[in-house]
User: Fold these one by one.
Assistant:
Number 1:
Amino acid sequence: MARTMHSDKRINNMTTATDNSQQAPIASKQRRKRKVPTEVSILAVLIGIGLLFEVIGWVVRGDSFLMNPQRLLIMILQMSIIGIIAIGVTQVIITGGIDLSSGSVLALTAMVTASLAQSSDYARAVYPALTDLPWIVPLVAGLLVGALAGIINGSLVAFAVIPPFIATLGMMVSARGLARAYTDGQPVSLLTEEFTWIGSGANPVIIFLGVAVIFHIALKYTRYGKYTYAIGANPQAARVSGINVRRHLVKVYAIAGLLAGLAGVVASARAGTGQAGMGLMYELDAIAAAVIGGTSLAGGVGRVTGTVIGALILGVMLSGFTFLGVDAYYQDIVKGMIIVTAVIVDQYRQRRRKLS
Amino acid sequence: MVATTASAPHIQASTPFLLEVANARKTFPGVVALDNVQLRVRAGTVHALMGENGAGKSTLMKIIAGVYMPDDGEVRLHGRPLQLTGPLDALEAGIAMIHQELNLMPYMTIAENIWIRREPLNALGFVDHAALADRTQALFDRLGIELDPELEVRHLSIAGRQMVEIAKAVSYESEVLIMDEPTSALTDREVEHLSRIINDLRDQGKGIIYITHKMDEVFEIADDISVFRDGQFIHEAPASELDANEIIRLMVGREVTQLFPKETVPIGDVVLAVKDLGLEGVFEGVSFDVHAGEILGIAGLVGSGRTNVAETLFGVTPATAGSVAIDGQEILIKSPHQAMLHGLALLTEDRKETGLFLSLSVLENMEIAVLRDGYTHGSFVAQHRLDQQCERMKQVLDVRTPDLEERIGNLSGGNQQKVLIGRWLMTKPRILILDEPTRGIDVGAKAEIHRLISELAGEGVAVIMISSELPEVLGMSDRIMVMHQGQVTGFLDRGDANQVSVMQLASAPATHA
């Protein structure tokens, strides 16, 4: 052993806090050497689809698809809400789970939020006794409702050991029912201007990008993120490494619920109303965005940047087909094919990973 | 390292080879796994493949079994070149492989597993279960296997599953059988049974390719030996012309003088005191002390409860009886996290199941247990410090990887194990529990890990080492605790321990009431 180590570098004591941070520059240099990340290839797909619509646009309509800031803004606005959900769903999928409840949780939070954001001069308000509440109240209430739904999901998965698919399927059905029951199916309208400002202009886009930045950093540079990947890669090894797997799973599902709640707040603010039918099938778009963005359903693999690009791909498709006047039915057909293609690519990547 | 030229083939050219591999080459992104490799197996012989992990044995086997397609070179059976595009092709051509990772369906019966895809049908086109069972029984009679064909595979021990795999391979009437470390999970008696089966197959004129890391086994069973190193063919000779040291020299490319370099170190105070520890229905009444600087070996057959004791100490399966004290202070361990706070570390038995994060990088695998004090700023990880420490750990442990960003799945077994050892050393444990620290690891890496364990004991770490390999336990331990069916049957001091005394305790029921 003396050959491989100096006497002052005893193995078990080598990690003492006195180590000088300038000692090992090799490490940081090596970290930069990277293969082409998945995100780059997905970005190429996004650009490719955009260019394809550009060309078809000129041929079919004699008009530019991309050179229209208005259209692009609308496209990103449309994707913001699904994007916010998708960032939460991505984290759940990284742990090896799935969240089918986000669309319904969005609807439930939209209802609760809207009921607390109604103008007091509206005769048929849900809570007529309330005066105009400051915008922060409905916002926080919405986030709490979302987080609570997430905590229930997470507890079912972690402590009742129910498969995530079933646990969140139950929440998907129940939350939708609760959203309807909340006002007997009546929409909640006439919200305060203070509140609807949250969803006005480009604000949803800013919120979406803010959420993306926060969770990109959280997944990459925090203990939360490292544990999330570890649990997805091998839950048993994670437990033996000292991670409280159950508690962490509840945390991840809670964050996914919180983000669905945030999406509900933004959606109701933007629409100026809360309706129980909001966010129908959004969970599937969110999962699709994550999967298209390279998140592996097997767990342990996925990035926020990929999901953002995945959401943009869905948005460009939607916007492009509308621009070309393609019927919505056909749009769905193509969307379905894209999702399946993304999973095929994921499987292929996994197989190659196993072989190498 | 590869300067040694491949020695000239000496087996007479007139001998017809059953299976030949010529000039095989296989590359993976960034790695040349095999380069210009040859292998020649005669009918009616056992041909052992020797080499360190990463030498290319498994890749070569997968080419022969049709799992991989070679970039160059060919596989010939009876002199005819084979074009294999998948494992089924190989099976139909007469080549069967018994995988290191067993590939049986746990919820189907033994008979169904063996005859899958080839089930006998009755007049209505349904599976004829009676015929299925008869066929299986006939096969088992031929091989001397005593298992109920109707039993579901999940009820079988690893050894039992191994037997089923072998029977399945034989059922294809294959001419070439590939066995990849078949005895790594078997007890001595099961190994004996396996060698009887292998001898029968040899007498029937089959060619058996046998991969193993166990030296004594090779000389017992092999007729010919081929040695590989770093993806290259090094040497081929009849087993009678080689000895263990020669093989090790060929495998490593240098002299490995001492296999178990146990250093005598001063033994300190009792660090860990375990009293009457029990886990209901699994083990009971386990009591022992471990001192600073001491290596306590735990020996016993598979299923004796050794691993369960380790897992219970570490809080994976919290104890249902007894007490544990560290430095005389009684403590309660309910989870691995708590165990870690008390300075314990556990290198688990099964690297793949409970150790590795296969989809993550070397760095992410190594750093995961220390994302706490000293390596975090609030919720954020101190990535720079982690990078440095992992890099240094990589150098001290001599982990061979292009860089820390490499996916751990791309490393050889020995290097993966070193990364996991690094994971635990980074936590600066006072009590280190090692469960099969060198299972499935090549000779060179093994010696390095043994040296490391000795070194750690020298620094005052209390080490508990579980191993199925008796020479390892005997060579490394200051004291050996022997278990049998969930009970401690005795302790042996280094001086009194030998293969016989350990095996007597390991196979005898506890003498006390």
Number 2:
Amino acid sequence: MTRTIHLSLDINGKQHELDVEPRVTLLDALRESLALTGTKKGCDQGQCGACTCHVDGKRVLSCLTLAAQVEGRQITTIEGIAAEGGDLHPVQAAFIENDAFQCGYCTPGQIMSAVACIREGHAGSEEEIREYMSGNLCRCGAYNSIVAAVREAAEMAATGVAAKDKAEVA
Amino acid sequence: MTIMETRKHGDAADGMVGGRFSRLDGKLKTTGGATYALEQPVKNLVHAVLVQSTIAAGRVVAVDAGKAKAAPGVLSVFTPEDDLGLLVASDWFGNRPDNQPFHPLPREVSFNGQAIAAVVAETLEQATEAAKLVKVSYEETQPVTGLDDPNAGEGRLVDMLSVGWGDAEAAYAAADIRIEAEYRTPREYHVPIEPHGLTVKWEGDFLTVWEPSQWTHGMARTYAEWFNIPADNVRIVSPFIGGGFGSKAMGYTYSAVAAAAARKLGRPVKLAVTRPQTFTAYGGRAATRQTIRIGATKDGVLQAIVHRGASETSVLADFPEQTGAATPLLYAVPNLSTQHRLVPVNTVTPGALRAPGKNPSAFGLESAIEELSYAIGMDPLELRLRNYADHDYQSGKPWSTRQLREALTVGAEVFGWSKRSHEPRSMRDGRQLVGWGIGCGTFPVLKAASEALIRILGDGSVEVVSGAIDMGQGTYTILAQTAAEVLGVPAEQVDVKLGDSSLPGATVAGGSMLAGAITGAVHKAATAARDELIGLALNDSNSPFRDTGANTLVIADGRISVPRGEGPSLTLAELMSAIGRDRIETQRNTLPEGANGPEDHKRSWTTMANIEGPTAGDLSMHSWCAHFVEVKVDEDFGTVRVSRVVSAFDCGRIYNPKLAESQWRGGIIMGIGQALLEEGLIDERFGRVINNNMGDYLVPTNADIPHIQVISVGIPDHDASVLGGKGVGEVGIVGVAPAIANAVFHATGKRVRDLPITLEKLI
């Protein structure tokens, strides 16, 4: 059999132990070994953004990242951004509210990019959001709504109002 | 799936059906909880990886699988040597040759990228590595690589696609104004973000297939026929589909390979088609060319349209991309002739991609109409209105509804069309040339029967159950709205189960027909459930309504009560408890009485043979749209940016405007890609798709897309469907590419007749 290595990965605040070959990507480790299938495989070539995760708070393409590279780092996936009690992250809520997806397959990657995009300070205008969200392809064509959702979530992050509260007030 | 966090926005007068509900599957899709085909937790799974041919035509002489078989973790290598024991399945219409063997890994190679072997191993990495070790020897023959190949020929005429009336050639020859041009579209690909693939598991003679499916019942039939097992032995499970656009309505050769491998190995198999492999694992839109001649009077009244088109197909099967599909429908013209030819080349058999036929057809006609507008110096909006078709000239029938005039006038008003100056190169913004163009679109109303089950449960909640699917159109949501409206309960109280061939039958999610078909079935089943519930409430000895003397009861806001009267008012849960029922179930379909037996069900749910076309009745029924596009073209570099889009749609009644608007925008964005970016590039020596990845086959990114304003001008069309809607999903792309080509001409004075419009064609 092929040689395997033991990894201990910090994903969404929990330690996960796994034995995989050194060539296994973070994406395949999540999907095939750890049952964390929210992170999607769209191209496996770093072209579509569907596999976007956070490593130490920064967005990475998990299909171009070996699982062995991220031992000792903090990995966050789509499964790990809602609040502990289950309340959606403001970006998740804004995506639903603005209908920022159709098939839903690019959505986890879009949301992970959007969270990072806001944190990076690149959500200041619609033009800037379009540019900094362009690493995530959406073939259903939800781009207008994605921009609206990111903008709304960024404004809420700035003013501290949660998406749900705002929607219910409206 | 469980429905969560439904909220209604907009005007309460919208009603339940017609309300701007957020997607019921929204929480699952935004939290990673929506589980797609390759994500099913199946135990003891092994992985299959395809090996595709590297020649376009010829024969596999030998496959040396020795090294692959010896590689770590490899369980088996399947090659053309292996008889997988399969039979050819029916086509979409249910036609099937008797007992003809099916070899999904064939010895004869008819296109580059054809699956010819598959490696199965314990892990994905092992299978991927071993697939590279498979050595194939070929005997190569000269391929025909595309429409322009000198050996391709003119193709053969498809008689059934010839349409004509009057004497088009004579009227064209006699016309004051004549224009003639050839328009071309390249191979285009679906590129759903979820690549194709499947997970398959056998339990004895029973097969479960988790595969993205636009048609669970149709695909179940295919597997049953391949393996010669009863249809009920196959279950296709597809609760979520990561984009289809026409590409996920059937099982393909790799599907058969995965299922056959699972049977041979006695273990569940997962086969993920890689992104590059998707470009030849199934067909995209065929390349087309069409010549259009239009004859008109000097004041722009159409006299004749002569259309001659062709599309490529494979050497294995005919799939016409009908370049004349929209030509007869858009304008009033007294003389018309269209013909379409099929040119076999060494490609994977092309398939249906969003608005097949209508899309390239409209590119030709809507470009040609604007060419005419410049030839006679008339505003292209005025030209279109002047030749408005008051009925369907092809069938001679009246339209059911046709708000295309409203689409044109409302769209023009919102866009600000009246501020346009007609001369090319007459509008600019600094170094950017500005151009405005129009493109109209159409898509037929197709009608099909479907079936649905409604359950009212003891706790007052409602379930809608159907084998129909939701690939992002919003089926889950609109079915909850439909049932909620009939049953008088909030949409939050309705759960919807879809995407499983073991559930009641439904037609394909294709041809923009599913919403009309399945809302009809749900409406009927929910009405029956409501009647049954009211009947029990009036008659059951334990019902508080029994002695009220009421003839009927009303259900609203989740409560059942006596109309306009004093008396009890119960929640559905309280009533169910009072009458001691834990469920009421009604299953109904929309097949006609007298044609509702098992064979009718099989034919209707698993084939397309019973689907009615747009002129099957006394009327001609279609969706319509008009796109208004602004482009900015850099004068020095020839780069084109779409800067503004206003599109007005007549799709009849809209069940959920929020979701319909998303679909329209999605179609328009795919049209922007088609106009400016998308082109399958074929190596003419080897017939290989050389840009078979998402970095080289470009689809629009967020930064390519401006704000798109979409407007509904439709009115309910109850001839088209029970609830009054017409198709939404496909019409949006139709007419976008010519609107952009027209805007580019207006900006630059350069007419690009072959898509995509790339900068080298403008400088």
Number 3:
Amino acid sequence: MKLAFFGTLGLTTALSTGVMAQTELSMWYHGAGNPAEREVLVGIIDDFNASQSDWVVRLQEFPQAAYNDSVTAAALAGNLPDILDVDGPNMPNWAWSGYMQPLQLSEDAIANFLPGAIGRWQGELYSIGLWDAAVAIFARRSVLEENGIRVPTLDEPWTGDEFNAALDTLKATGDFDYPLDLGMADQSEWYPYAFSPFLQSFGGDLIDRETYTSADGVLNGDAALEFGDWWQGLFQNDLAPGTSQDMAARETGFLDGRYALQWNGNWTALPAIEKYGDDMLFLPAPDFGNGPKIGAASWQFGVSANSDHPDGATAFIEFAIQDKYLAAFSNATGLIPATSTAAALTENYKPGGQLEVFYELSAQQGELRPVTPGYIVMSPLFRKALADIANGADPADALDAATDAIDADIARNNNYGF
Amino acid sequence: MSAKSTSKLQKHTLAGWLMATPAVGLITLFLVVPFLLAFVLSFTNQRLVSPNPTQFVGLSNFEQLLGVGTLMLEPERDDAGAIVRDARGEPEYPRVRDYTRNNPDYLQLSGMRELAAMSWGENRLVFLARDVVFIKAVLNTLAFVAVVAPVQAGLALLLALLINQKLRGINVFRTIYFMPVVVSIVVVSLLWRFIYAGQSGLLNTLLGFLTLGNFQPVDWLGNPATALWSILAMSVWQGVGFHMVIWLSGLQTIPESLYEAADIEGATGWQKFRYVTWPGLRNTAVLILIVITMQAFSLFSQIDVMTKGGPVDSTQSIVFQAVQRGYVQQDIASGSAISVLLFLIVLTISLLQRWLTRERN
């Protein structure tokens, strides 16, 4: 009797110390309100917690709109979690500001990753993405063929002239409210993410990427002014809905047949395929002279600077970037898995899959937004310039204003360490 | 007697202070400290988050915000000296950016942009500002205040007079007029976005129906000419109920006997308003004017929800810019400088209003 009692006590103690020995790691994620993402992420965390006895990851979710502010506030208060997720273009700012520490992953572990899923700043790896996103022109084969418009391919995209001519042709049919929908309703990071590649294809950029210390002559140089005039023309000639487009029209306009073409991301590709089936095409960006470009980098995982357990946090991230989880995320969200081996495991990105084209788009044309801590200031300034030009502001003045504000910000920050 | 009561009060000083502590502490923490910090930070280059040390930069934040200049442009002339004219017969002028960007002869204008321009004989006089967005925000806010203060106060008074009657069911009307005040301004702004929507918004549909389809739909919030006034109309609608209640309380303090006396004298309705009601509302009027002015200067939520300062800066406001700089662009110093300027503007106007509405003996 006595023995049994002690035996039970000993067992309980052993169990509870076993639990106690696991160190808790906190993790923040931006996807609150998205059940599909949550399910996959919670699955990864459960698998990780069960796979070893050193660490327990605890998830806390935030709505995307409040996530960055929460991280900034937590950083000011010294309350950052161990594991963070970070939008690719913001990572350099967070690294520079001291929210994040370099990620101790071996180069072999990420060798096969899409370039857009790897977050590097000043030669160090800080973040790694389980997926990337890509943007394409959503179109219907039947509409293009009816109007005698060539279907472009990855190797032979539309030239700028061809694209403009196609828009004019589609407008002339009178069948559509607008020939092109750019998503001007979505006044967020969408603007720089989706539209700065057009500027780059014209030969301009948000900043001089040689020095990273000035935008003068790049954001307001001749190529950029040419882009500005083209951009303004889209709205002046009623080729695309402007900034007062409402979000509902953005979401349903192409599916309802009110827009002939739509510039949209692969995360909305599945409903389009469901609607149009084999007629649905995902076309590469037009080439305005400097090659077709699309934006790269989506949300990625990293380790916060004041984590007491970077080894545990790194272990979790290393666990999470297995191909099977990359594939699970892709199946749940429609996003592009970060490796080709994971792509082969997915429904949509395997050879012959419905979204296979996006993997190649991302691999071949993906261009990172400027990798500098100053990007977080460039982003709203560029968005404002694009909105102002669309609303009739002089393109040169609007781009000058953005250029001056970007340069002033860089100067105030001692060139952000460049 | 008096000495005794004083000592009694003195005995309770500590208790008094203790009771005031929570309020004083909170007010200090959330009002006094941020207020003083804004002054200090506006003279530095403080960032929201940055590994760089903070430095004092003197008045440069204010110089950046307030720098203005003028430039006289002469029309372009061809080789024969005749003025070059465009297709509409207007003279062509050189571009302002040729003078304000990398032009060693006009270094004092470097980095400025065009704010407004006017003809000056055959020349063109251009007003330049170093921070066009901020100057536009100030002008928009001033225009907003100048219209909202009298219109909202006037409408509120009208409503107060209407509901200050002993009619059956008058409380229903009081409730209806007061309802928008109870709803959060963010919710109201979201709803009015649908009302103002460009293609098939409620307002356009209604106007089209009333004019039998002759009305051309207006993109109320997407058009620089209408955006600020649309927001203004909504703000007045939302705020008018609150000030109606204040007017009403003022109206009900006016003794009934004064109206009875006026009736005996044979006064008309207008005379009763002019010589009884209005003088009796004097202090209420001062209060309402100052409150509306201050509220109108802090215009932010409507802008943030409905237009984000656009289109083309037509709805920028001072507070919206302070938040944009301080938080979105992480430039706390510049945001603080804007807050300090706003404080000085509101202080000046409030003092001016106090002086204009003072009791003249």
